[in-house]
Design goal:
The N terminus is likely disordered. Helix content is about 30%, strand content about 20%. The strands form six sheets. The protein has an eight-stranded mixed β-sheet, with helices on both faces. A five-stranded mixed β-sheet has the order 17-16-20-18-19, covered by helices on one side. By secondary structure, it is of the alpha/beta class. The chain has two domains: about 350 residues, Aminopeptidase (3-Layer(aba) Sandwich); about 90 residues, Alpha-Beta Plaits, CATH 3.30.70.2390. InterPro entries: LytR/CpsA/Psr_C, LytR/CpsA/Psr_CW_biosynth, LytR_CpsA_psr. Belongs to the LytR/CpsA/Psr (LCP) family. Pfam families: LytR_C, LytR_cpsA_psr. Keywords: Membrane, Transmembrane, Transmembrane helix.
């Protein structure tokens, strides 16, 4: 569950350190696992990726990498105090079960150049199947919400064993995260996943030894312990933690750090580390390989169906720099229900994903026929008409519009009998979950636009000056940093990239 602000800075240590560990496991220590095959027996396997989960049919492989913000071991027990001291990240009371790192690694069928897509952790999205009352939220929150709900369910059944509660709770969290990411990205198949906890990065960084990174200018931050100079420099494990978790610089405020810059740092560390692993001849050093394997095994969970040897044989280009790093675009920063969030244009996100790792077919230009009714629960005049006109322009039939007597914090989408196909299409476009409602007229789709609603750009008339977000001015307090004006430039592997 989300923690209070008192511990916020501490769990930022795990922002991408976790995902960094995971990708290096595949791109680098995968070789080590093949070389030290006996070590694979100690890996934790998960059943969360059920047989009904859609998989790739074109021979490609999509792997979801989850970086879990937890200071506990796999059984929910605290780590040794010495470990907390090394991490400088609080203790077992800090952190939580947010997936502070979410990345999708796409490897083509022929094993050629891979793509790593980072999903910003604060993207405000639909959480399909999430516990009641949490239909939308930050994408990172789904894991913890589902874990907590499952543990409460088991406790009500009389289960008291801490290990059982932790194991089944985490399985629910993994499934929720897979479902949320897949839905957000437009239904892309998730073939496998890997989950990494905080301490895994520190262990791996120690096993790697010093890593070369490059910065565009000097920067420092007392919260993370970052103190770096301009240009290339060698980092030990502790400095590597600071490098990937830095989110501010009060000494150089013009740098305007945001969460997206931490995504960039993560990608730069990955590129640098994989480049160094290959150029330093690590794969020919049995001692180094053994250390990497041991570090990778401690805090990693993979799905039951992932065949590491097969994956390594098909993706050997990863360690040769054959990977492109990119971050999904956001629309801007905002505040919803008192929390800082990333506002997203769902249509743009899904178009980006299709271009990067999908079938590159354009999104449908028309919607299935149905009558669309819209309820304005946002507190902003004109929202219902704007939503309805946009959907009618895509082929739907104009129904009714009216204003709800109260503002609602969460948007919703309901449909009557016979409108299921249209409802799914509208839900996909608006980023909502469609719910069959017996009170909704047959062949009608009813959109309830709450204060969290954001109109996709594809539904916004180019000549209209109407607002594209339903948030009242009071709810959209300015964030301390400005969002980028466009997508971040892709980063190529194979060298040591220079970043902010």
């Amino acid at each position: 569950m989300e923690q209070g602000s008192t511990g916020r800075w501490a769990w930022l240590v795990g922002k991408v350190a976790l995902g960094v560990t995971a990708l290096l496991v595949f791109g680098a220590t995968g070789y080590a696992w093949v070389y030290y095959a006996e070590f694979t027996e100690g890996l934790t396997r998960s059943q969360a990726l059920g047989s009904g989960t859609p998989r790739s049919t074109d021979g490609a492989t999509n792997i979801l990498i989850m970086g879990l913000d937890s200071r506990l071991d796999q059984n929910g027990n605290p780590l040794p105090q010495a470990v907390y001291d090394q991490l400088h990240a609080g203790d077992s009371s800090n952190g939580g079960y947010n997936t502070n790192v979410l990345m999708v690694l796409h490897v083509p069928e022929d094993g050629s150049r891979a793509t790593l897509v980072s999903v910003p952790r604060d993207d405000y999205v639909a959480l399909p199947g999430s516990p009641a009352g949490h239909a939308k939220g930050k994408i990172k929150q789904g894991y913890g919400l589902a874990k907590y709900a499952r543990e409460q369910q088991l406790a009500a059944q009389g289960v008291t064993d801490r290990k059982t509660l932790e194991a089944q709770g985490r399985e629910a969290g993994r499934k929720q995260t897979v479902d949320s990411v897949r839905a957000f990205l437009g239904g892309i198949p998730i073939d496998h996943f890997v989950e990494v906890t905080l301490v895994g990065f520190y262990d791996l960084a120690q096993a790697l030894g010093s890593i070369t990174v490059c910065l565009q200018g000097p920067t420092q931050d007392s919260y993370s312990g970052a103190r770096f100079v301009k240009g290339q420099q060698q980092l030990d494990a502790g400095q590597a933690l600071a490098f990937v978790r830095q989110r501010r610089d009060y000494v150089h405020p013009e740098l305007n750090f945001t969460d997206l810059d931490r995504e960039r740092r993560q990608q730069a560390f990955l590129a640098s580390a994989s480049h160094q692993l290959k150029s330093a001849g690590t794969f020919a050093d049995p001692g180094k390989l053994a250390g990497l394997v041991q570090a990778a095994k401690k805090n990693i969970v993979i799905d039951e169906g992932l065949d590491l040897m097969d994956f390594v044989q098909r993706s050997q280009g990863l360690t040769g720099g054959g990977i492109t790093f990119t971050t999904l675009p956001i629309k801007g920063f905002g505040r919803i229900n008192g929390e800082d969030v990333n506002l997203v244009d769902l249509a743009l996100v899904r178009a980006t994903v299709r271009e990067l790792i999908g079938d590159r077919k354009p999104a449908p230009t028309t919607l299935p026929p149905a009558i669309v009714d819209v309820v304005n629960a946002a507190g902003i005049e004109g929202v219902a008409g704007q939503v309805q006109n946009g959907l009618v322009g895509k082929g739907m039939t104009k129904g009714s519009t009216h204003t709800h007597p109260h503002q609602l914090g969460e948007s919703a989408l309901y449909y009557g009998k016979g409108a299921d196909e249209a409802a799914r299409a509208v839900a996909d476009l608006l980023g909502l979950s469609a719910e069959l409602d017996p009170d909704t007229t047959a062949n009608h789709v009813r959109v309830v636009a709450g204060t969290d609603f954001t109109l996709p750009a594809v539904l916004t008339p180019t000549t209209s000056a109407a607002p594209t977000t339903s948030r009242p001015a009071a709810a959209a307090a300015p964030a301390p940093a400005t969002a980028p004006s466009g997508p971040m430039e892709a980063m190529q592997g194979g060298d040591v990239p220079c970043v902010k």
